[in-house]
Specification:
6 strands, 7 helices, Rossmann fold, alpha/beta, 6-stranded parallel sheet
């Protein structure tokens, strides 16, 4: 590896599995110090253990991105520990894919909005100000093709990802003068545990792999200008 993220501090949400895990692992292999965050502490500790065994640096933080207090507390702890967050990757998301849009339950709608959209906003809210103060930082928001292409069976998910796409574009324009780069990735179906659980008859090796998204995120973190 080339060490293109040497000594950069990265916060990755939803990093216990899937795309988040791949991004955290890739970033660490390129020299980043990674705050591996998510709700399942056992998964986080496993990811951190693997990163450390490979010679990387990482610390697990249990955090629910939909919880304002938890997000603020975690960000403050990370800033207190390393004095900065150079890279923020908003990856945490859930999906309910078993109900037509018009029969979506209020519970499913609220839960997906809270994690997928509100969670992205909260992390940006508590991190980006410190980046703007330093006139340096990178934000990568993981959206989805569902944010631009309607799908009948995942209405709430698509709505949240439309929101993430719009928010990402607005944020990019807003913080560009302050030296912060904001970009989004909108993958289609990716072969992760989440999609396998949700669509067990469709997932397979022909799908995009988490490592493919991680390589794209690495490019955005290390090289790419803002949209």
């Amino acid at each position: 590896m080339s060490g293109v993220l040497e000594d950069k501090v990265a916060l990755v949400t939803g990093a216990g599995r899937g795309i988040g895990r791949a991004i955290a692992t890739d970033f660490a292999s390129e020299g980043a110090i990674v705050a591996v965050t998510g709700r399942n502490i056992q998964r986080l500790e496993q990811v951190v253990s693997e990163i450390r065994l490979s010679g990387g640096q990482a610390i697990p933080w249990q955090m629910d991105v939909s919880d304002e207090v938890q997000v603020e507390d975690t960000v403050n702890q990370i800033l207190g520990h390393w004095d900065r967050i150079d890279i923020l990757v908003n990856n945490a998301a859930i999906i309910h894919h078993d109900t037509p849009v018009w029969r979506t339950s209020i519970k499913d709608w609220d839960e997906e909005m809270a994690i997928n959209l509100r969670g992205t906003f909260l992390c940006c809210h508590f991190v980006v100000a410190s980046m703007a103060e330093r006139h340096e930082g990178v934000v990568i928001n993981i959206g989805s093709s569902s944010g631009t292409i309607p799908e009948d069976m995942c209405g709430p998910y698509g709505a949240t990802k439309w929101g993430v796409v719009g928010y990402t574009m607005s944020l990019a324009k807003s913080v560009r003068p302050h030296g912060v780069r904001v970009n989004g990735l909108n993958p289609g179906w990716v072969d992760t545990d989440m999609t396998a659980e949700d669509t067990p008859d469709n997932a397979g090796p022909e799908w995009t792999q988490p490592e493919d998204i991680a390589r794209a995120a690495l490019f955005l973190a290390a090289y790419a200008p803002a949209d």
